[in-house]
Design goal:
With about 200 residues, this protein is mainly beta. The protein is built from one helix and twelve strands. Helices cover about 0% and strands about 45% of the residues. Strand 2 (about 5-20) and strand 3 form a beta hairpin.
């Protein structure tokens, strides 16, 4: 069995703008967009069977590049209070990192006679090369490492047939990448790293 945040909810705000500077001798278009997103890590814990861990410490404490302290969680109980124990992690407990990015396009039109037009431009995605740490669905949910707390084993007492709680640390398999925002992801059309594309279009 394992502990995992298997559902990820995202909140996004987007701004799209086009600025047309007609006061220049040649028309200059500046299309661009700004995207802001945050990830809310919510949902149940577990691979095959959904169990949520117990919250036994300050999970908001950062440990190195981990946004959440894995030591603040413990395996669930094996008794009748497995679902209603007051220490069981509540829904919407963890919020992942937010992201922002800026795209910018610069285009200029040229006229050659009455029939030929040429457009020269450059489009930059993630203009400031800002890392987008908000994990996508593959990395944060559905088996992703960001939300995978780790695994644990339980045992059955052969004489009483009662479940025995996991023994720490022998029955615990922690995930070292839990809560670590060490990758950058494409978000809302903003690339995970800066990319610049040049374009030339001729119409006649």
């Amino acid at each position: 069995m394992a502990n995992q945040l298997s559902d990820v909810r995202q909140n996004r705000d987007r701004i799209h703008s086009i600025l047309d500077l007609r006061q220049l001798r040649k028309r200059l278009n500046l299309p661009g967009n700004i995207a802001v997103t945050s990830v809310e890590a919510v949902g149940d814990f577990g691979d095959f069977i959904s169990y949520r861990p117990l919250v036994v410490g300050n999970y908001k404490h950062h440990v190195g590049d981990q946004l959440f302290d894995p030591n603040a969680f413990a395996p669930p109980t094996v008794g009748s209070d497995v679902f209603d124990n007051p220490l069981v992690a509540k829904r919407n407990l963890l919020w992942g990192p937010g992201s922002w990015g800026v795209n910018l396009g610069l285009h200029k039109e040229f006229k050659f006679g009455e029939r030929v037009n040429a457009t020269l431009g450059a489009d930059a995605s993630n203009l400031f090369n800002h890392p987008l740490r908000a994990p996508n669905q593959d990395f944060a949910g559905g088996g992703g490492n960001f939300a995978y707390l780790g695994g644990f084993n339980i045992h059955v007492d052969p004489s009483t047939l009662q479940l025995l709680p996991p023994v720490v640390p022998d029955d615990i398999s922690p995930n070292d990448q839990f809560g670590r925002a060490f990758q950058t992801f494409t978000q809302e059309g903003v690339e995970g790293r800066r990319t610049i594309r040049l374009r030339l279009r001729i119409t006649f």
